[in-house]
Amino acid sequence: YKKTAPLTGYYYAKGKLKTVDGMASIDAVTDEIGRVLAAAAK
Q1: What's the rounded Cα separation, in Å, for the pair 9 and 38?
Q2: How do residues 1-42 score in pLDDT, each as one tens digit?
Q3: Whole-prediction pTM value?
Q4: Taking a C-beta distance cutoff of 8 angstroms, is the pair 19, 36 a contact?
Q5: Measured distance CA(23)–CA(40) in Å, rounded
Q6: CA angle 12-14-16, nearest 5°?
């Protein structure tokens, strides 16, 4: 966490930070990750 936390601010400032609710069901998390990755691949 200590090494990756600074990246959150960096990518947020660039408008590239995407978040996923990791507390949702496994299916919901999987679907959301798929949507985020598909959008990034375009």
Answers
A1: 23
A2: 888 889 999 999 999 999 999 999 999 999 999 999 999 998
A3: 0.73
A4: no
A5: 22
A6: 65
Q: Which amino acid type is present at position 6?
A: P
Answer whether 31's CB lies under 8 Å from 23's CB.
no
pLDDT given at position 1: 81
- Domain boundaries of the chain, sorted by first residue: 18-42
* Backbone φ/ψ region at 19: left (φ over 0), alpha (ψ -120 to 50), beta: beta
The pLDDT of residue 4: 87
- According to DSSP, residue 14 is labeled T
Q: DSSP secondary-structure letter at 24?
A: S
